[in-house]
Structure prediction request, 939 residues.
Amino acid sequence: MMDGGGIMASAATGAMGSLLAKLAALLGEDCYRMQRGTRREVAFLRDELSSMNALLERLADAEADAPLDPQTREWRGQVREMSYDIEDCVDDYMDQLRGRGPDLSLSGGGVLGFVLGYVQAVREMVSRRGIAEQIQDLKARVVEAGHRRKRYKIDAAVSSTRVVQVDRRLPALYAELGGLVGVSGPREELIRLLHDGDQRMKVVSVVGAGGLGKTTLANQVYRSTRDRFDSKSFVSLWQNPDIGMIFRTMLSQLKKDECGELTGSGDKEQLINELRDFLQDKRYLIVVDDIWSTQAWKIIKCAFPDNTHGSRIIVTTRIGTVAKSCSSPDYDLVYELRALSEDDSKMLFFRKIFGSEDECPHQLKEVSVEIVRKCGGLPLAIITMASLLTTKSDTREEWMKVCSSIGSGLEKNSDVEEMNMILLLSYNDLPHHLRTCLLYMSMFPEDHEIRRDYLVRRWIAEGFIKAFGGRNLEEEGECYFNELINRSLIQPLDFQYDGRVYSCRVHDLILDLIVSKAVEDNFVTVVTDKRQILHHQGKVHRLSFDCACVQNMLSHSMSSAHVRSLNIFKYSELMPPLSNFRTLRVLDLDGNENLESSYLEDISNLFHLRYLRIRASNITLPEQIGELQSLMILDLLNCSETAELPSSIVKLWKLKWLIAHRVKLPNGIGNMQALEFMSLVVVDFTTPVAVLQELANLTKLRTLGLDWRISNTRKDKMAYADNFVSSLVKLGTSNLRYLTLISPWSLDFLLDSWSPPPHHLRELAIKGWCLKKIPMWMASLANLTYLDIEVKVIQETLQVLADFPVLQFLKLYSNAADPEERCLVVNNNGFRCLKKLNFVHWTNLMFSEGATPMLGTLEFQIIVHEVKTACGSSSPDLGIFHLSALKNLVVNIYCECARVEEVEALEAAIQFSASMLPNNPTPTFHRFRESEMLMDDAG
Prediction:
């Protein structure tokens, strides 16, 4: 069962969510089909397991405050394993129904239909045990777990007093400047933000990942500037701070130099009043280190009067949203602490071990650099690795072992444990669903670039995401992804035009932590060439296989019968057949160029498969693909072009995402009414016109990519065009948000025939065909944020585009330019929301003052020898100095028929204009056809 509204699986509760949903289905409207005694047993299972599920969640919360005792952890592990076993038993009932009577999956009952159908049919299966007997066995296991719960007093573990631990940030408070590396620059920048001459009270937030040095930096600034203030205090918080204790600590520090009696013994309101009274007329400096929530800040900030004596507050946090909520709203004073540079990282590493890099033995240089690289500029990691290596011999083999262990969760050492405890604070602060999503990322290899949309789809297929607040599962999954970035637990790599993160990676030290946690909870099992098999001694639920020698896996007697997720990064002919993985929900065949179609022959046995991704060449999907009635996501994007999909694919009535590279659709596509994403499909002369008609039935479709290959010379072109336009119109009035059309042939029939226009459309790309003008329907798209088109650009065209109200990305091509249109001008207030512009045109583009106020990235081309003719100067004023938000500038310069000094003068003019901008962007120049430049007079 796949419930779009609730989390079906998690690291904290195992398969409890999915299992409880299935037991509820058994007790649904058709429960009269069960014997009365069986109904009672199922109801007992549901109620008892629901209680255990709630306790498992409470145990996860309690573990964030203090480690659970071994007895409680053992009980928790057994109950989680039991949830998987019981769900497998229920799933077996569904499997046995396959091939007996009508296909219940098409009866409209889904999993409920399967389960109820089995309950009815099982009475006729004399050779098998009855369902009542099996449920009795399951009940016995649950009852025994309940008895152990009482005997071990598991519930008491939740309410036990939290253990007060030593503050592991103390060394950062007493670090001397002489032993620090890379602090001077951030310290001076932060001091500059503090001492700007403004007498109003200001709050500066310092944000960064755990172990990045926020506490050290804040302390260095505090020690450097405290003498400039009348009163000062430095306090560190925990995840669940005692606010009263924090206020009393502040008072004791603030009043230690004051005459009079030290008070601070009242409740929070009294303490706030006492602090405000004391600080009201003073210039004060307060550091609040490591704050975890906006709720805590809302209370703490009440103690700080907003006076006009130049008072300052420094807040450090690991969470971006907390940093923004703390900083003074009128100034946006958020300082993002960056990782150490490569040079600073090496300096810190070698200083801690050898005193300097020059003292490092030659045989350790290369491996040292690799260890530093894996630390990713994280000072805590560098210092920890250096401390660990001081306990090792100076042999390259010994250091290579340590290097290989980073990211594997294997190395055990007091320094490593100390570092993990600091990083664990961030993990423990996550809600259950985000812990699950982060642990799941341990399935990916080190340094693996993970695309956001791909990861979110995996989470959806696993059942980790719960829809909330009117968002669909994909939108909610992106919120999860952003929250992990916001908390500095995954690192953003690439960004989209609108600032959204496109891909990420997991820092090796965070990977180290989550691999350890995933193994401990038997959540993920990892097999690689580089490290030993990491898996629980019990059953395997999620298997990530990145190993050239498959014997490594088989030799450990690893059972595949209970594997729910399988990642194969390196395929081998010795890989167990898919028929062995009967409980599989997710199958990802990534990077397997030697994968053969024959391996997929048994895929029809994977009745519960929700997600299938294949990345291999020359793969043909078997006709049995239509048997996968639970399939939600089919990703063939990285396969070679497929002539056509199997005709049985139209039976996949639950499929939401069809991701491919130029595939042809079979008749019956209109039956797949759950489809929300379909790209990229080909329409050519072999495509039945009926397929275009059926597109109109896919009213849930949000994303469509289509490659139009209907030649203008075909007699039946208008039949294709009319049906295509008719379907597009219906999709445009339904849910269509993202449309890509590719065609080497004219699409003129789209110019004025789309009515009513697709007003919900957010992104539009039309490639391979040059429009004569901007169609009226396109000009009316008020929600369009992304536009990639080829059109004949004249000043009037540019003005139409400049008036799009929310356009953020524009990629504009034109291969023609009239002589009178050699110089186009973006006028004042044009492109008000545009953030990225890529202008490919044989024309010069000029910006007026007030144009493109949000433009951050600009790429354009310029023909040097035409500049003077078009703009009246060999070094034109392109208006680049008006682009106050510009950060990235790329200029493609065509040098043919131009003199060297003209090219150099043009580059110098652009360089000078960019230097006048607030962000001081460094232009990137690409010269084309340099060999066709004219030499200067001397040459």
